[in-house]
Amino acid sequence: MNTDKAAPEPEDGRPADATTAPETLKAVPVRHFGRWVAAVVAVAVLALLVNAFAHGKLNWGAVPDYFFNTDILKGVRNTITITILSMVLGVVLGVVLSVMRLSKNPVTSSVAWFYIWFFRGTPVYVQLLLWFNLGLVFEFINLGPIYKDYWSSFMTPFLAALLGLGLNEAAYMAEICRAGIQSVDEGQTEAAHALGMSHGKTLRRVVLPQAMRVIVPPTGNEFINMLKTTSLVIAVQYYDLLQSATNIGQTSGATVEMLILAAAWYLVLTSVLSIGQYYLERRFARGSLRQLPPTPWQKIVRANLLSFGNRSSAGGTA
Q1: What backbone torsions phi and psi does residue 133 show, to the nearest 5 degrees?
Q2: For residue 37, what are the contacts with CB-CB under 8 A and spacing of at least 6?
Q3: Spatial separation of the C-alpha atoms in residues 81 and 88, rounded to whole Å
Q4: What phi and psi values does residue 150 have, to the nearest 5 degrees?
Q5: Which residues does 216 contact at the CB level (< 8 Å), separation at least 6?
Q6: Are the C-beta atoms of residues 213 and 288 closer than 8 Å to each other?
Q7: Distance in angstroms (rounded) separating the CA atoms of residues 119 and 172
Q8: Which residues contact 224 (CB under 8 A, 6 or more apart)?
Q9: What does the pLDDT look like over 118-144, one tens digit per residue?
Q10: Over 60: is that where the pLDDT of 12 sits?
Q11: From the CA atom positions of the chain, what is the Rg in Å?
């Protein structure tokens, strides 16, 4: 007995298809009204700031006029110099302190812990003033047959700035290096010792090269932060970018304009350092990634090549 029911015929009299195509779904994106509100508020605030500074009593022409002034360039050069030397001192001393901190010797470990505790717990500004005013406590510096002089002649503004910034940075670099060393698997050290390597050679050739992938990113951030922290050396009368801009502002009467100029120079220098940090991180990431992501320049080149290829194919088909 056939129980199949005949399919109902459509009203127009044509037979219905056995397989009816499903209706195409139309995806409607979710509307994010909050994003539009946030964008409008941000643009409005930015417009208000621009309008306020545009109608303020600022001589904007003084900024480009003094941007490459001789005194300003001297301050920029001194700022770069003290930044590099302070970071070198901080990195070298930080590596030593991190090794001491991880040592099984309780004396060296305790000394490293106390150093990190003290220099991380006191402000950089206080440390700079302390180094600069130690001449009130010590009249001479006596290193025996090596060196002997008045403290005021020995502790120059440059040396006070270098010690204040470099010794403080060493405490932070010690913790960064310690974290990088501890990120390396202990099996690497055990394998190196099994091959007959000494502890020092294992540290130099096995542990530190692998730890650099963890150490480099925060070190780059510390470098950029050090560049900005050098503005505090004005407290010890070191002639840096901020000091030069302040002096010109006082003599020319364009105090705020020169501070804006100094901020512009700091932005230029930090931007250059950020680019260098990006490529340095990319270099040390080669061992952990199968394929490195394209750089911004490579993205631009690829986009131009693709657009040129599309135009060429369109012209050929036409």
Answers
A1: -105, 10
A2: none
A3: 11
A4: -65, 145
A5: 277, 280, 281, 284
A6: yes
A7: 9
A8: 270, 273, 274, 277
A9: 999 999 999 999 999 888 888 888 877
A10: no
A11: 32
Matching residue, tokens 């005194």: 71
* Higher pLDDT, residue 122 or 299: 122
Q: How many CB atoms lie within 10 A of CB 244?
A: 26
The two tokens of residue 141 are: 């510096």
- C-alpha 74/C-alpha 268 separation (Å) is 16
Tokens of residue 31, six digits: 């509307």
The DSSP secondary structure of the chain, one letter per residue, reads ---PPPPPPPTTSPPPPSSPPPPPP---PPP-HHHHHHHHHHHHHHHHHHHHHHSSS--TTHHHHHTT-HHHHHHHHHHHHHHHHHHHHHHHHHHHHHHHHT-S-HHHHHHHHHHHHHHHHS-HHHHHHHHHTGGGT-SEEE-TTS-EEEHHHHS-HHHHHHHHHHHHHHHHHHHHHHHHHHTS-HHHHHHHHHTT--HHHHIIIIIHHHHHHHHHHHHHHHHHHHHHHGGGGGGGT---HHHHHHHHHHHHS-HHHHHHHHHHHHHHHHHHHHHHHHHHHHHHTTTT-SSPPPPHHHHHHHHHHHHHHHHHHHHHH-
Taking CA atoms, 122 is separated from 117, 118, 167, 318, in Å, by: 9, 6, 12, 73
Closest CA to 185 of 214, 150, 161, 151: 214
Taking only the tens place, the pLDDT of each residue in 91-118 is 999 989 998 998 888 999 999 999 999 9
Contacts of residue 292, Cβ cutoff 8 Å, sequence gap at least 6: 282, 285, 286
**Residue where the block lists tokens 């940075």:** 169
Cα dihedral across residues 237, 238, 244, 246: positive or negative:
negative
* Nearest of 48, 158, 181 to residue 112 by alpha carbon: 181
